[in-house]
Design brief:
Length: 183
């Protein structure tokens, strides 16, 4: 699954990071102007052209698997609930804190996979999967180390959990820096 310099999964993951980063920035700008509910409505309006483009690309042929449809609808429900909470948090808090704290959501995914689907996770299985697994582990480890280093210096100036979360989740973002000083 490797066509170019990067494995496809890593290219898509990096694109996700980029687009979600831009999205988080735009959310902060918008949440200072309109309510979380309005943000959600406009979010869905913004999706319409992309949904239509995807349907055209699929020649309007959508899989009709019942369980797949159920999971797709649940995906929309949980995404909407999460986004409404995220928009409200951005409206009331600093982007430099809200972003990193909400970026911990994969922990819920991992716990659910472990508890409900009995997924196993060990470093050996990541290592033996080859360069792809080691590269992902290296990126995640570097991210964590940067966060720990930043956290040590942050605790002195902000001795509370928000400083700790911000430091660990995004070591390069100082908790006192916000995209809108009035928040």
């Amino acid at each position: 699954m490797k066509d170019g310099l990067l494995p496809k999964w890593l290219l898509h993951a990096l694109l996700s990071i980029f687009w979600w980063g831009v999205w988080g920035f735009v959310v902060k700008l918008g949440s200072d102007k309109i309510s979380p509910r309005q943000m959600q409505i406009l979010f869905m309006v913004g999706m319409v052209p992309l949904v239509l483009a995807t349907l055209i690309r699929l020649s309007f042929k959508v899989d009709m698997d019942g369980l797949g449809i159920t999971y797709g609808v649940l995906n929309g429900v949980f995404t909407t609930l999460g986004l409404l909470a995220y928009y409200a948090a951005m409206q009331r808090g600093h982007a430099s804190l809200v972003g990193p704290v909400t970026a911990l959501f994969p922990l819920v995914t991992v716990v659910l996979g472990f508890v409900l689907l009995h997924f196993a996770f060990d470093l050996h299985s990541v290592y033996v999967r080859g360069v792809d697994g080691r590269l992902g582990l290296l990126l995640a480890s570097g991210y964590f180390v940067l966060g720990i280093c930043r956290t040590v210096s942050e605790i002195r100036s902000e001795p509370n959990l928000s400083g700790l979360f911000a430091g660990v989740a995004h070591g390069w973002i100082h908790p006192d820096v916000a995209l809108s000083p009035g928040s």
